[in-house]
Q: What sequence folds into this?
């Protein structure tokens, strides 16, 4: 088998360090669920209880009162174990030889390996993003093995808001989205977050258009801006929302193409998600990488590897692998509101 020139593992990791910021910069979810790692085969985290009570009166010459230490709860979950590869076959590698030559020199596969790795990295990030959006909006996520049917899943119970009447296109003359959104602040009572104007609500463009089409004269459709103009754009709506100390609307239309070739929004049509502003600035959750024996030194990080299969096998082939062990953890479930805007 002729010599093959391809990026080594350390070079693939350098490619990932370059691509990762570009592939995640436009997704808001990685701001609220950043990546971290833990040198453990399980996903574990500790959550402190809420601070309660008021400082007690001592009085002159009085003894101070003892206060019990704050408690905590410990959570543990199994990680998902993921991995896939892209093969570079005999024909593809053979055609890599310089044309019109019979040289037995090395075959350069750098660009093919880099292209394959970029595809695998994109698929990994799409998976992570789908898991987190599903968890936050549906309260559950599930990833099924393509052949065995075994699933990796998780769930929690998010706060829900369902307007009446629904904010559907059919109810544009009677729906009251402005009045409904004013109640978001109530969800922050007792939580270490705010659902006022410093929070954000996310919808895909189909759902957002339904809200913007409101014609209810007693609600959003009757609001007039400076100069007597009606609200007719997202900027106009957000101007009204901020004036009412309501989270601004952000349209997020990203998603993925499923196995049937159908585009799937990460935020389903008819659904929305309000993410509160954490007073402490601590992230809403994490996507945690756990220990992985396939990574260099078994580190808690994704693995990427190029495997040559050809020295003793026919036909010769090269495999570009990528995988990880990990899963999401949500530390502050009270910091989100799921909006059931309407049923499409």
A:
């Amino acid at each position: 088998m002729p010599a093959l020139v391809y990026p080594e593992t350390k070079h693939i990791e350098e490619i990932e360090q370059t691509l990762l910021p570009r592939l995640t910069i436009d997704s808001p979810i990685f701001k609220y669920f950043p990546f971290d790692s833990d040198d453990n085969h399980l996903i574990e985290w500790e959550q402190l209880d809420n601070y309660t009570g008021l400082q007690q009166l001592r009085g002159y010459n009085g003894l101070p009162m003892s206060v019990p230490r704050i408690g905590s709860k410990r959570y543990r979950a199994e990680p998902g174990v993921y991995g896939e590869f892209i093969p570079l076959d005999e024909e593809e590698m053979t055609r890599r030889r310089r044309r019109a030559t019979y040289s037995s020199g090395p075959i350069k596969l750098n660009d093919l390996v880099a292209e394959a790795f970029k595809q695998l990295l994109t698929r990994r990030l799409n998976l992570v993003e789908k898991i987190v959006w599903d968890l936050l909006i549906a309260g559950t996520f599930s990833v099924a093995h393509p052949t065995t049917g075994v699933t990796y899943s998780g769930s929690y119970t998010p706060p829900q808001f369902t307007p009446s009447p629904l904010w559907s296109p059919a109810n544009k003359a009677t729906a009251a989205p402005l009045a409904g959104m004013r109640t978001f602040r109530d969800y922050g009572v007792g939580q270490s977050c705010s659902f006022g104007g410093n929070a954000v609500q996310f919808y895909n463009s189909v759902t957002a258009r339904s809200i913007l089409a409101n014609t209810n004269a007693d609600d959003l459709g009757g609001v007039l801006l400076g100069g007597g103009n009606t609200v007719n754009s997202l900027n106009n709506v957000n101007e009204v929302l901020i004036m009412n100390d309501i989270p601004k609307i952000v349209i997020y239309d990203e998603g993925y193409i499923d196995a049937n070739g159908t585009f799937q929004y990460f935020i389903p049509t008819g659904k929305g998600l309000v993410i509160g502003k954490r007073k402490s600035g601590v992230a809403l959750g994490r996507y945690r990488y756990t220990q992985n024996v396939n990574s260099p030194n078994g580190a808690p990080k994704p693995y990427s590897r190029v495997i040559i299969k050809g020295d003793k096998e026919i036909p010769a082939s090269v495999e570009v692998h990528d995988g990880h062990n990990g899963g999401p953890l949500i530390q502050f479930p009270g910091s989100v509101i799921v909006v059931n805007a309407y049923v499409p």
Observations:
- The first helix runs from residue 9 to 24.
- Confidence is low (pLDDT under 50) at residues 98-102.
- The chain has one domain: 4-47+73-340.
